[in-house]
Amino acid sequence: MNTQLKRTFSLIEIIVGLCAMAFALYLDFTGNESSYRGILLAAGLVLIVAGLFILPTKKHRSIVNVLFLLPVLLTFFFTVLNPFILGIFYSLTDWNGIKFTKFVGIGNYITMFQSRDYVYSFLITFLYTILNMIFVNIAAFALALLCTSKVRGRNFYRASFFLPNLIGGIVLGYVWQFIFNKVFTAAIAGSQSMLTDPNLALAAILIVSTWQYAGYIMMIYVTGLQGVPKDIMEASNVDGANWWVALKRIKMPMIANTFTVCMFLTLVNSFKQFDLNLAITNGAPSRILQGKAVLSTEFMALNIYKTAIAKNEYALGQTKAVVFFIILAIVSLTQVSINKRKEVEM
Amino acid sequence: MKTRKINLLFGEIAGIILSIIVLLPFLLVLFNSSKKSADIVISPIKPPTNISQLFTNLGNVINNQNFSYWKSFSSSLIITVVSLALLSLFSGMAAWVLVRNKKKWSSVIFMLFVAAMVIPFQVVMLPLLSTFRSLSSFTGIQFLSSYTGIIFAYLGFGGSMSIFILHGFIKGIPYELEEAAWIDGCSPEGTFFRIIFPLLKPVQMTVLILNGIWIWNDYLLPSLMLGLNGRIKTLPVAVSSFVGSYVKQWDLILTAALLAMIPIIILFAFAQRQIIQGMVEGAIK
């Protein structure tokens, strides 16, 4: 009796839900712009889900499986999968952000590689990425050694080195713009702001990104260094290995994995740098290249953003983004294959 | 023994100096938020002479029309909290289904999520806007410049990594636990909510911290979806649009920056260990 009641009730819910959704869609097709259309659709969906949930059937477990996966799959499809596929398609058209009129093949890719500002931003991003990788990892490893030694106050140092990493790049970028433009020029009287010289502006971004990011990478090295067994360190001490030898022959080889993780993490994150770039220099200052001016510190992520949003060339911006993705995908595949090789060795 | 002590002393001195250098920008923000515009021009390095100026500046910026601190703060808070709550719930549900069904479809879906972690935001951001625009006109639910839309987007973008982390953890939970519940007549959803979900607490901490710091500080997604001068602004967007309207007025800009930093610094002071641990664990996995 009880199951019978439940079944009827759930079936009614499902049917009412279906009707609500169908009516919402009908309103959509008739061009009715009433504000309750969306609510009706959502309410219909909720009713169907609830109805399916309490429906007494042998397939209950499968229904639960589907309903549990549904929210993530739905959001994932509309925010990642569908835009991703559309994006690759749009890069082959003359899309203007709203619609496209014709298919241009690889025309956008050719335009892109012929444009001076893109090739420059491509190269400067690589330069920045490599330099940043080196600086961040050296700083982070040195700080990690300090924070895993027996110095007093090491927890305080850890926390303060880590702090910049928690604040958003946009806010920090503006703060540092102030420091470069006002504080440094006041501290060294009569000096020009670093941000007015193309090379020094790049150095400025490197300073800030190392400052912001080293504390995070440091903590990963700290975790690695703490994993080095104490008895091995004691044994090396007994054998008379000094600090430097112990570091080079024992600690560093034992945390080789941590080095790989940190290298790739900084590589990917430097390559995707956007917030600091936008807030500190916004691409400026200009650099004269073969008689024409290009923005000297415009990294790829910012270049993509500006092409699409500021210059309104959506198809070209999307094309640049696809190339951006391909480079990152290659980096990630390399990392996966290195990890696989390591696992085989172990 | 003696050289050891000297070395440690050197380490301590280095640690203190480096901490001061790292914290100096924060100190400069505090100093210059407590000055009048003219005093910053005279010297941006000197400590402020009159602390009450800090409160004058704070008052001015908090009530500024372009910044409206409390409004942007609550928008950021609503977006972050709702996204995190839904993200941990939905990802937990999905990861559990994917782990406990060893079928072809489940591994395909899981691989899809893992592969999607490589996709940078830049490659989807432009079509995302057009997809959301058509979704809005199709469903009648506003997806752009609305809480619904941006939370929906954070579920989509945060889902992959959260599922990946939770998947690894749930694999380690013995299946016998669920079988016992099953025999006792517990429904599948009951098994998940009463047995599995409570067990996820330690790893959910990592998921919450990683996603929380990201969503709270994110700039590009809200600036595109909500607009720089839209009805809803998150804190980073508000700071950016404030800087745009008060170019070079550093007393106001730095006060705004200070206000944007304070919530996280307070949170960090209380949950320092958990935050560091969560972020490091997320990176290693």
UniProtKB/TrEMBL annotation, chain A:
Its main location: membrane. The chain crosses the membrane at residues 9-29, 35-55, 67-92, 118-147, 159-180, 200-223, 321-338. It is a multi-pass membrane protein. Coiled coil: none annotated. It is found in: Cell membrane. One of its GO terms (biological process) is transmembrane transport. The keyword Oxidoreductase does not apply. One of its GO terms (cellular component) is plasma membrane. Pfam families: BPD_transp_1 (PF00528). InterPro entries: ABC_transporter_permease, MetI-like, MetI-like_sf. Residues 118-335 form the ABC transmembrane type-1 domain. Keywords: Cell membrane, Membrane, Transmembrane, Transmembrane helix, Transport. Gene3D superfamilies: MetI-like (1.10.3720.10). Belongs to the binding-protein-dependent transport system permease family. This is Raffinose/stachyose/melibiose transport system permease protein. It comes from Anaerocolumna xylanovorans DSM 12503.
From TrEMBL, chain B:
Residues 73-271 form the ABC transmembrane type-1 domain. Signal peptide: none annotated. It is found in: Cell membrane. Keywords: Cell membrane, Membrane, Transmembrane, Transmembrane helix, Transport. GO terms for biological process: transmembrane transport. CDD domains: TM_PBP2 (cd06261). The chain crosses the membrane at residues 7-31, 77-99, 108-129, 149-170, 191-216, 252-271. The keyword Lipoprotein does not apply. It is a multi-pass membrane protein. SUPFAM superfamilies: MetI-like (SSF161098). PROSITE patterns: ABC_TM1. The keyword Transmembrane helix applies. InterPro entries: MetI-like, MetI-like_sf. It holds the Pfam family BPD_transp_1. GO terms for cellular component: plasma membrane. Belongs to the binding-protein-dependent transport system permease family. This is Raffinose/stachyose/melibiose transport system permease protein.
